[in-house]
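Summary for the lay section of the report: proteins are chains of building blocks that fold into shapes. Here we show the chain for Protein-L-isoaspartate O-methyltransferase and then a coded description of the shape we predicted for it.
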Amino acid sequence: MNPTPPHLENAKKLIHEIRLKGITDERILKALLHIPRHHFVEDRYKEAAYDDKPLPIGKEQTISQPFTVAYQTMLLDVQEGDKILEIGTGSGYQAAVLCELGAKVFSIERYEHLHSRAKCVLQELSYTPQLFFGDGYLGLPQYAPFDKILITAATDTIPEVLKKQLAMGGKMVLPLGSVYGQVMTVLRKVSKEEFQRTEHGGFVFVPMLKGVEKEAN
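The coded shape description reads as follows.
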């Protein structure tokens, strides 16, 4: 689904801005142009939907800055058919990007309200990731192993449970560090216990939390 005509020019400007910041993968840029980001934000923020900045989505969570989404996706090196676990569905925007790139997406959200809203938006736009309400720290062992794992919230340690759910040769991308700032980190699983690690610049994400929060009745 393309952005509606009034938003298309803003979407093109956003893609141009992201390209200037170093995102050159045309598949990712095309996906970002194709996805109507204004569907993933609250009505009061729709005017800013195509600005390259994060926006609040409730529960003290945000839809990530488009550049950050593109950068994490680039580091993940998504290939068509990849089985990807996303920790932190949030608005559902990142899941839509992964779907656009042909991945088989499994995504967990700890906030039931955000899970429900993302499910509705993604269905409305005809994206079909498998969405789960649950604790991201536990992953989805029943669906493991995964070719790629993407963590979209800050953690100061790499969850061992998630490392075990990564396929041999698989890749994990996560913002690693304290709540005050993180380093975008890539892990590649080279053996059952061994991981190669590279670092790719500083970012600030909301913290990854344990447990779940159900909607109030």
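Put simply, here is one thing we learned. The mean pLDDT is 95.
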